[in-house]
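QA checklist item 7 of 12: single-chain prediction sanity check.
[x] sequence parsed
[x] length recorded as 200
[x] structure emitted
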Amino acid sequence: KTHGMHVDVRGVTSHAGPTPMPIRRDALAAASRVIAAVNDIGIKYHNSGGRATAPRVVAWPNKPGILAEWAQFSVDCRHPEEAGANAMRDEIEVAIAEASEKNKVEMEVVSRWEFGNEKFSDELIGLVRDTAKDLGVTHKDMQSLAGHDAYHIAKIAPTVLIFSPCVDGITHNEDEDIELDKTVPAVNVLANAVLARANR
């Protein structure tokens, strides 16, 4: 399951030179504190399949020597189990509250989203397994924590995903590369599964 959120941070603009540290209300400093915490939470849950990141941050006025009066960052946390994803989200919300208090700013989660509750078709999963076995293609079940279009399709039609290995496991990245001899078996499984489904 995946939880996402956009968080707005409101502080006070002031100059980096004359403003004493104890009275600063730096929105970017507060956002940075949460961003670091999000990464730490991801590391904490890594062994059970968790992932957490803050992939985007913007600040205003975004000038040298000026403390930010406003910042916004996004958070993305994922876990194969709903309880794990919810626990990560809860820890992130605690980090937001703590950073808000420590930096004397206001933080507000202005939007939320989630996905990953959709269940893929047991029938199609079985069909892909059987097709791979019939073709002598080695295979394994795996969970994808990426937000594929298939999550949306699964809401309206039976759905399954087939993956083939990428070089060094790099995927969803400009450096993603595939080797033909490792991809052709997956394509054959897909083609044969589609034919079997169409001819049922």
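[x] summary fact logged: The helical segments are 27-44, 82-102, 122-135, 150-153, 180-198.
[ ] second reviewer sign-off
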